[in-house]
Amino acid sequence: xxxxxxxxxxxxxxxxxxxxxxxxxxxxxxxxxxxxxxxxxxxxxxxxxxxxxxxxxxxxxxxxxxxxxxxxxxxxxxxxxxxxxxxxxxxxxxxxxxxxxxxxxxxxxxxxxxxxxxxxxxxxxxxxxxxxxxxxxxxxxxxxxxxxxxxxxxxxxxxxxxxxxxxxxxxxxxxxxxxxxxxxxxxxxxxxxxxxxxxxxxxxxxxxxxxxxxxxxxxxxxxxxxxxxxxxxxxxxxxxxxxxxxxxxxxxxxxxxxxxxxxxxxxxxxxxxxxxxxxxxxxxxxxxxxxxxxxxxxxxxxxxxxxxxxxxxxxxxxxxxxxxxxxxxxxxxxxxxxxxxxxxxxxxxxxxxxxxxxxxxxxxxxxxxxxxxxxxxxxxxxxxxxxxxxxxxxxxxxxxxxxxxxxxxxxxxxxxxxxxxxxxxxxxxxxxxxxxxxxxxxxxxxxxxxxxxxxxxxxxxxxxxxxxxx
Length: 470
Prior knowledge:
- By secondary structure, this protein is an all-alpha fold.
- The chain has a single domain, classed as Up-down Bundle (Amino acid/polyamine transporter I), CATH 1.20.1740.10.
- It is 74% helix and 0% strand.
- It has helices at residues 15-26, 29-41, 45-73, 77-87, 96-133, 145-149, 151-156, 159-178, 181-207, 213-221, 230-243, 250-255, 264-292, 302-311, 318-352, 356-376, 396-423, 426-433, 437-463.
- α9 (181-207) packs parallel to α13.
- The longest helix has 38 residues, at 96-133.
- The radius of gyration is 21 Å and the shape is globular.
- 56% of the residues are buried.
């Protein structure tokens, strides 16, 4: 049995619960939506190969660092960093790195639930299609393909519906986080993650018989080194970093609920491997269906919400497969949004000594308002940032996305690497990380040198995208 956090009195009931919850935190829309889009936009195999290398050399070391801080601190993320700093005889000002992460988690949650609302919308669309046309044949029978692809732009143009879906998805997230670690977060992880994997494997298996599976395998795993350009490598580094939900205090928070009997190195390896496997399966799930329909892989963000629904028109039982697919995506999105809400909730609850449901409600209420602006004014540029090059012409949704993914998350991860690699007591860190011998020295080198340097590059390119011609 895992021990409870010193501050919160809450903890995972077992190592399995922590692993499933952490995988749920990492596996989300970044895997299901962003990875296939990034792979498609960056040429497939070369991107995938470099992405896997970056997960191993950058993502995993930072992931282990965050969990180590959380378990030793046994509290919300900023307090955990503060405790590690105090015991190391260093300035508690380093807690700023977790403050940045908590702020980032709140901002990501605000717009993430807007995208979660899109998933709910497509679940409703495919349910309606089943009741209208039945389950035999392709989806959206009798409807023009252009009409199907226009569903997403039509949703974007309906501010009231966007707002309602955002609130609905956030309300579901609030319900489980308010119930606590064992009664809510762990319950979701132990039930929805296995269901997610069952649906995922089943749909991927189905895709193997659609006629585009061989093309998808070739596309994802045939490496053309001439395609490994600077922008492709930077995209792969960014995807590896963001898909593991690093830099938003989530893994620190979850780590605080882990007992001393859990080997953090081995568990972090399982989490990173599962996250990468899901990303690859997402490609093997989506691309065969898209290729079989004769559609292009490089549709970008529209791949999942426009190209894929259009592809379901051309496959047997397309409406059922489409419904199951978006239910599966909903499971992944929910487990990630729960971790995003938990990080600021844990901070609020501990900082102001208030009951969990009230703390959860305050954070969720703030995210509802901020995300509500992103939903209602979707596609409308924000005048107040029009003079800032990085945000010029962006709407609220894009401003939140840009500010977190290009600035806050990389800064938080850089500071985490520097803190664990150079500031925190070696004795303290070594007692927690579960590594020894050559693996320990390799991890320390990566945390001290490779991770900060790579993340600094991500930060600089994120702020000044013209460097790579974006």
